Amino acid sequence: MASSESRLRVRKEDGITQVEFVDRNILDEANIQRIGEEISEIIDGDARPKLLISFSNVDHLSSAALGTLITIHNRLKQKGGQLRLANIDPQIYEVFMITKLNKLFDIHESRDEAMESFA
Amino acid sequence: MSDGPAENQRPSPRQKASVRLHRFPEDLPAVQTEVLEAVSAHEYPGASEFALRLVLEEAISNAFRHGNKSKPDLHVDVEWTVEPDRVVISVEDQGAGFDPESLPDPTDDDRLELPSGRGVMLIHAYMTDVSYNERGNRVTMVYKRPS
Q1: pLDDT category, A2, cuts 50, 70, 90?
Q2: Which one is predicted more confidently, A72 or A7?
Q3: Of all residues in chain B, what percent carry a pLDDT higher than 70?
Q4: Residue-range domains of chain A with CATH
Q5: Helices (H), chain B
Q6: Which residues of chain A does B110 touch, with a Cβ-Cβ cutoff of 8 Å?
Q7: Considering only CA atoms, which of B135, B123, B55, B54 is closest in space to residue B92?
Q8: Facing residue for B113 by CB, picked from A60, A98, A104
Q9: In terms of C-beta density within 10 A (0-12 exposed, 13-18 middle, 19 or more buried), how is residue A71 classed?
Q10: Which of B79, B94, B113, B139 holds its CA 20 to 30 A away from the CA of A1?
Q11: Measured between CB atoms, does B103 come within 8 Å of chain A?
């Protein structure tokens, strides 16, 4: 699904699209816009998308990345889709806590737990 | 003040420096790298490096986007001083300035789904002290080493 230049690893399992980031700093300013565009294409390609984003390779995140995640959340909500986040490093989770975005996103400790949570 | 981002060919990271940035985000990583190398030389904990990397990105992004309104002919000045017990970073843009007190709270329930408006909040959350000049186009951020 992703092109050879993609900074995402994408695979589909049981109707759920799983996305991982290739680089540890993939959510920085230089990359986040492109990441958002790639994930938007995934959402556009599915009638009622179910998306699981894993942060297992990510050790940094800024408000630009949060903005992209919120845009993804809003697009999925409009399409009646579902979004889960998983494997978030404690330092990064603290950013979600400070901004109270842990209330907006459905966050799970592990990929397996997130997979089981889809309706 | 040196012109452009921190240079790659240096014997060691500068503990105190001023740089003028012209491009965003292209000029950001070199500044982050040099400041964090200076911080690492003082053996600050990993959480400190996470916090400082984050606020550098937030403050410089705000300066280019909101301060300079992404005008390509405008620059942003960054100064830093890294000491054993504290780090001081200032970021100044060429814009008209802003009133930080006027910003809405991005954690309000009716604002949670808005994709922007969290940078200043994160700076205040992670730094020990944050102050602005009278015009509001220069932010000075102080980070004290955790005890």
Answers
A1: very low
A2: A72
A3: 93
A4: 8-117 (3.30.750.24)
A5: 28-41, 46-62, 119-126
A6: none
A7: B135
A8: A104
A9: middle
A10: B113
A11: no
